[in-house]
Specification:
The chain has 165 residues and is an alpha+beta fold. The chain is built from four helices and five strands; from the N terminus they run αβααββαββ. The protein has a five-stranded antiparallel sheet with strand order 1-2-3-5-4, covered by helices on one side.
Length: 165
């Protein structure tokens, strides 16, 4: 019985969920600045997008997960000692993609480091709790490194949607 809290939170799989990109019915993305106001901007973008897609009733769960993913990207993916170049493309990007019965939130950041979950039993811990919340409120999550010139990684969370009538 040598399992600890972090093994329970292993991502379901490497890579994006097995969803056909051609079948995406809606997609939206927004670039986020390397500042903590980015979380507020991500929430506002998510609310507007879900309202537009008539998914407003999922806003609370989705927004909590988006907030955690963006916060993690800002906290762990932006090296403190690297000077900011204003013309540089924003380092964190939020993508929302909708299939018929699935919604995926994906956050891209420049770090190659894998997301680390904290000890789920220690609710006083500041770090690592975010991914526990992501795991609790979404129907699955994972991450994959980006190849090529982009570099970095994408961390994603999946939500099942009720079938449309």
């Amino acid at each position: 019985m040598g399992t600890n809290g972090s093994t329970m939170l292993k991502p379901l799989r490497q890579g994006l969920p097995p969803l056909d990109p051609a079948a995406v019915s809606n997609a939206a993305s927004c670039a986020l600045p390397a500042r903590y106001e980015a979380v507020r901007e991500a929430r506002r973008f998510t609310r507007g997008t879900l309202d537009h897609w008539d998914l407003g009733e999922r806003f609370d769960d989705v927004c909590l997960v988006v907030s955690e993913l963006v916060t993690n990207a800002l906290r762990h993916a932006l090296p403190a000692n690297v000077p900011r170049i204003p013309e540089q493309s924003p380092p964190v990007r939020l993508h929302l993609m909708r299939w018929t019965e699935r919604l995926v939130c994906a956050v891209r950041d420049p770090s190659q480091e894998s997301p680390v979950t904290g000890d789920a039993d220690d609710f006083s811990a500041e770090c690592g709790r975010g991914l526990f919340l992501v795991d609790s409120f979404s129907d699955g999550w994972g991450w994959h490194p980006l190849a090529g010139t982009l570099g970095g990684k994408v961390v994603w969370a999946l939500f099942r949607l009720p079938p449309t009538e």
